[in-house]
Amino acid sequence: DLLSPPARAMEAKSTADLQAAIDAGKTVALFWAQWHPGAAAIAKSDLLSLLAADHEKIKFLKVDGDELPELVTKWDVPQVPTAVLFANGAKVDTLVGVTNAQLVARVESFATQAAPAPAAAAAAPAAAPAAAAVSADLETRLKELVSAALVMLFMKGSKTDPFCKFSRQMLEILEKEKCEYATFDILQDEEVRAGLKEFSNWPTFPQLYVGGKLVGGVDIVKEMAEDGSLSDHLPDPSTSLDFKPLVAKPDVNPLHEKLKGLITKEQVMLFMKGDPEGPKCGFSNTIVGLLRDQGIKFGYFDILSDEEVRQGLKEYSNWPTFPQLYSNGQLVGGLDIIKELVETDSLKEEMGLA
Fold first, then answer.
1. In 3-state terms, what secondary structure has residue 236?
2. Interval 253-280 mean pLDDT
3. Cys-Cys crosslink for 167: which of 19, 22, 155, 242, Cβ 3.0 to 4.6 Å?
4. What is residue 218's predicted lDDT score, i.e. its pLDDT?
5. Radius of gyration of the chain (CA)
6. What is the pLDDT of residue 33?
């Protein structure tokens, strides 16, 4: 008899590809994007194919969030890399900011986990038949936010670190228009993220507002930029129109200010357990060794010495484990990412040190 070819991870080319896998049984979908080095490193490695070979009853798919944004929206994927697990046609778990080690451990438990009873409803997350009206307090807050600046962009990430291709495209359009604008990172506030969809009757992000009124998403704004009509909706940069918030700025978060100060204390900062001369865990010891082998000078912070920083940094950086390495105030990643960057001889380039 001919041997069956070894199982391997597949690349989802359409919504139907993922749905077919979900309908067939247990499925693990890795959402990634070319522009995110950590997500790309996982997707382009052999990890998913190795897991597929070890767990032949589970289907593994890679989903490029930029190519299939409708799946990002459908399965409520907030960022890349994210792994979504399905069983009996239903989503059973979401691993946001997943690392190699976390994915391997979760797949091991998923393989032996009993699948939930099939739901009578469809596989996709059920949209509320009649979405609950935005509460009065939230509506007031959203009205203030969309008018917080003359031009407001609600996006994934920030001006300096956009988290999706469409947010990045919107930034490029506004920069070409030489328009002053403020941004709000909807990944940092789930209430605003969900509420704004209902408030504006617009299901996706980014969303652009001028004078408190919705202009549209990236497709509409792109068309307006191409036909020249966008400039009619934006303040003329040649006029003396002042760009002033229409409401008071939100209170500064003291913990966030403290964390910003810590991650920018040195050009390269390592948040670890223990210190370089006495690491308190194997992962911290390994990453210290990698940085020294690469000849990279770094400052450090012992997260065991400050529980507030330890817990706060997980939320601030949306990265659940330690150690965490920062360069020029930006998160590079954890140990798995650093290992992969070293193996591809791209660590210094990724850190802006090349």
1. coil
2. 91
3. 155
4. 86
5. 22
6. 85
Quick one: pLDDT at residue 115? Answer: 65
Residue 290, both tokens: 């990698």
Closest alpha carbon to 349 in 272, 284, 271, 294: 294
Nearest Cα to 216, choosing from 175, 166, 182, 178? 166
Sequence-distant (6+) residues with CB within 8 A of 165 are 33, 35, 66
Contact between residue 78 and residue 96 where contact means Cβ atoms under 8 Å apart: yes
Q: Which of 142, 110, 117, 255 lies closest to 209, judged by CA?
A: 142
The 10s digit of each residue's pLDDT in 98-124 is 888 889 989 988 988 876 655 443 444
pLDDT, one tens digit per residue, over 170-192 is: 999 999 988 888 999 888 888 89
Total Cβ atoms within 10 A of residue 217: 18
Extract the tokens encoding 136. Answer: 């009065």
For 57, phi and psi rounded to 5 degrees?
Answer: -90, 0
pTM strictly above 0.70: no
Nearest alpha-carbon partner for 225 in 258, 176, 295: 176
Q: In 177-266, which ranges are continuous DSSP H helix?
A: 190-200, 218-227, 230-233, 254-263
* Cα end-to-end distance, the chain, whole Å: 54
Element (H, E) at 316: helix 307-317
Residue with tokens 């950086």: 317
Is the pLDDT reported for residue 1 higher than 80?
no
| Contact call for residues 224 and 230 (beta carbons, < 8 A) | yes
E strands, 103-181, in order? 151-155
Looking at residue 102, its amino acid is Q
Output the furthest CA–CA distance in the chain (Å, rounded).
80
Write the DSSP assignment of 64-104 as a string of letters.
ETTT-HHHHHHTT--SSSEEEEEETTEEEEEEET--HHHHH
Please write the tens of the pLDDT for every residue from 4-25: 445 678 999 999 999 999 999 9
Question: What distance in Å separates the CA atoms of residue 163 and residue 39, rounded to the nearest whole number?
Answer: 12
